[in-house]
């Protein structure tokens, strides 16, 4: 799978998809966006990706935001997203809402919608609130497209997306092997490309790709790392880690593992089934504000994937992850898991980042986790 070409040519892919199907392309920011509903309405949901390029426009519209928000604003104003017919903002990051407002004001022809998702995902009324919001959104899609979203269309969309999640989970399961056949940069590249494509088409590519991986010769010994922090938009960090002899075998990113970790359980009420899936997905830093469940999930993943250390890459000015870090650091220190924290923007200062990663990896190659041997296969021979 040439995931780099898929990512680089995402505009061409979307334009071609529109020409082939006669459908519309819908862009979204937030991981809680219910893609199945848009897909059932005959639309192509596309995750918007930030790119590092000269920014000459965003400062006139937005003051003091993170780099992805500025990049999205700059890309909109430059016409980079001219292939999108609709744009949805899900209640979440207030800074990203600023970019949504700019796009909405800049292009009145764009179908726009604000979708409220409860921040307290486990509150008693959250499921009913979200189901009601989904029903409103469904009605808006039906009015815009001129056709009803049928039960059969919803069932098909749910099946396609559940299949997609199962295939992506297989990629992660292959990374649990001590000698894994897939590198972290490949896995993240596939994850990013997946969020740009028609899932029915992507499922065919994924099935072939997984068969190739299962026949591939496993890689040799590498330091096994987990990646935490803000969303990523490229595979630069993973590739840099691999150049130093390590491998990111698991992550807990909103557009990484959390994107595919749970499926929709079919119910008679399809909208409620969709609502329960998104409320039950692994909590993002923004919505893990009631019981702090992320730390326990991170620890369980660290055991399941036999990691040696953790990288925490936070986007500069990303307040949700800034507020979340204290709980993550506390967990890692209590469990004796080595970790390295750094802030980044859309690009990586190559030499500085490489030097810091080298120093970190040097501390854990002969580190306590390896000496303790808890991540090694258990030898029961007498």
Descriptive overview:
- With 382 residues, this protein is an alpha/beta fold.
- The chain has a domain of 145 residues: Rossmann fold, CATH 3.40.50.11890.
- The protein contains 16 helices and 8 strands.
- It has a 4-stranded parallel beta sheet with strand order 2-1-3-4, with helices on both faces. Strands 6-5-7-8 form a 4-stranded parallel beta sheet, with helices on both faces.
- It is globular, with a radius of gyration of 21 Å.
- The termini are far apart.
The main sheet comes to: 4 strands, parallel
Q: How many DSSP H or I helices?
A: 16
Overall geometry comes to globular
**Strands across the major sheet, in which order?**
2-1-3-4
Report the β-strand fraction as a percent range.
Answer: 5-15%
Question: Can you give me a brief rundown of this structure?
Answer:
With 382 residues, the protein is of the alpha/beta class. It is 50% helix and 12% strand.
Keywords, please?
382 residues, alpha/beta, Rossmann fold, four-stranded parallel sheet, 16 helices, 8 strands, disordered C terminus
Topology:
Elements: H1 3-8, H2 10-21, E1 24-28, H3 35-40, E2 43-47, H4 67-77, E3 86-90, H5 94-106, E4 111-115, H6 126-145, H7 151-174, H8 184-194, H9 199-215, E5 223-229, H10 236-243, E6 246-251, H11 257-260, H12 270-280, H13 294-304, E7 309-315, H14 319-335, E8 339-344, H15 350-364, H16 368-372
Parallel strand pairs: 1-2, 1-3, 3-4, 5-6, 5-7, 7-8
């Amino acid at each position: 799978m040439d995931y780099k070409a898929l990512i680089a040519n995402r505009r061409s892919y979307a334009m071609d998809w529109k020409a082939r199907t006669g459908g519309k392309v819908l862009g979204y920011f937030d991981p809680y966006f219910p893609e199945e509903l848009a897909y059932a309405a005959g639309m192509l949901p596309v995750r918007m990706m930030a790119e590092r390029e000269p920014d000459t426009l965003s400062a006139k519209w937005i003051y003091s935001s993170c780099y992805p928000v500025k990049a999205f604003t700059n890309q909109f104003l430059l016409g980079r997203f001219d292939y999108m017919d609709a744009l949805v903002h899900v209640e979440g990051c207030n800074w990203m809402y600023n970019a949504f407002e700019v796009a909405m004001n800049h292009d009145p022809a764009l179908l726009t919608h604000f979708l409220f998702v409860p921040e307290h995902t486990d509150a008693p009324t959250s499921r009913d609130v979200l189901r009601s919001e989904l029903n409103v959104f469904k009605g808006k899609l039906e009015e815009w497209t001129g056709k009803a979203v049928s039960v059969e269309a919803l069932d098909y969309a749910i099946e396609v997306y559940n299949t997609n999640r199962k295939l992506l989970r297989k990629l992660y399961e292959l990374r649990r092997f001590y000698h894994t056949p897939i590198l972290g940069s490949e896995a993240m590249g596939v994850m990013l490309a997946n969020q740009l494509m028609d899932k029915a088409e992507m499922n065919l590519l994924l099935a072939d790709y997984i068969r190739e991986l299962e026949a591939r010769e496993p890689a040799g010994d590498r330091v096994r790392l987990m990646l935490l922090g803000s969303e990523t938009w490229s595979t630069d960090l993973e590739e840099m880690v691999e150049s130093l002899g390590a491998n990111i075998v698991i992550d807990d990113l909103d557009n990484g593992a959390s994107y595919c970790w749970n499926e929709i359980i079919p119910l008679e009420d399809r909208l409620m089934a969709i609502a329960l899936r998104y409320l039950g997905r692994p909590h993002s830093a923004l919505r893990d504000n009631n019981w702090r469940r992320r730390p326990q999930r991170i620890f369980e993943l660290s055991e399941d994937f036999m990691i040696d250390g953790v990288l925490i890459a936070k986007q500069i000015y990303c307040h949700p992850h800034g507020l979340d870090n204290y709980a993550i650091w506390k967990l890692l220190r209590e469990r004796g898991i080595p970790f390295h924290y750094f802030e980044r923007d859309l690009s990586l200062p190559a030499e500085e980042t490489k030097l810091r990663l080298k120093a970190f990896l040097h501390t854990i190659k002969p580190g306590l986790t390896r000496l303790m041997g808890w991540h090694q296969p258990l030898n029961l021979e007498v």
